[in-house]
Write a structure and sequence with these properties.
By secondary structure, this protein is of the alpha/beta class. Helices cover 37% and strands 13% of the residues.
Length: 281
Amino acid sequence: MHDSIPTVTLRNGVEVPSIGLGTWKMGENRSRASEEIDSLRLGLDLGMTLVDTAEMYGDGGAEKVVGKALEDRRDDVFLVSKVYPWNASFDKTIAACDQSLSRLGTDRLDLYLLHWRGDYPLAETVAAFEELKRQGKIGAWGVSNFDTDDMEELWRVPDGDKCAANQVLYNLARRGIEYDLLPWCQQRGVAVMAYSPIDQGRILKNPDLIHLAKTYQATPAQVALAFLLERDGVIVIPKSANLRRVRENRDTVDLDISDEDWAILDTAFPPPDRKKPLEMI
Ligand SMILES: NC(=O)c1ccc[n+]([C@@H]2O[C@H](COP(=O)([O-])OP(=O)(O)OC[C@H]3O[C@@H](n4cnc5c(N)ncnc54)[C@H](OP(=O)(O)O)[C@@H]3O)[C@@H](O)[C@H]2O)c1
């Protein structure tokens, strides 16, 4: 019997699972499409019903794969996509959203993010996001790769404080946001979506992590994900196109790590003691 997946409640009251499904590197190769679709559908079956994609991934290919995986189950899923910064003017944001919707085969996104900061004024992008909300094409909007000073600037533009989420690089090996950005978001109810939660696999070779995982009969990936799931308001979006690893990631929620062992991880992966600029992949 598995524990149920914990949830995070967004500022608009919508409850989402705190572990979802990433899709970067999907949709790049036709020969892999069916395993990608199968792994997304398995993830949904297992309750990881938040899917993160972007117009960037596979040049629209990932959105097409997601569209196929969601064909008969769109209503069960919280769907997130992102607009390129160079498409983030008022008119181009609306057009990019329409194109994402068409690739995804749906009439609405649940969350639409600015992928990273570009040259268009934030006020213009926010105005477009609010217009998309009025048109019913998106349920909420947010940002990605925004550091604390970017968030503060966002809060000063009209409707900027309606931002629902900030998707950032966050994992055991990259804890910089714990110093300021994470508490900033938590205090305002802005969900933090932790991307590359297992550092794209790099973290899994760490001997301390391997050792600790063994003591729980778990895998290093599960401990790395469990570390993030411990944090309030944090949503993790591991990507896997492999059925076994999708199950493994989902089973993370059954892991119960002791305070002593969290302290061991703090020694192996120290939290920040000063401000560090937000890292990006
Ligand atoms: N907003 C942004 O700028 C941004 C940037 C990066 C990522 N993202 C989003 O965040 C998602 C996750 O980040 P990510 O894809 O960069 O990295 P990640 O989820 O940390 O790692 C993905 C890699 O780890 C492997 N993997 C997955 N589960 C595993 C497990 N249990 N054990 C061992 N290996 C495992 C995957 O391979 P297999 O597929 O073969 O299992 C894949 O190679 C992305 O897919 C994307 O949706 C957003």
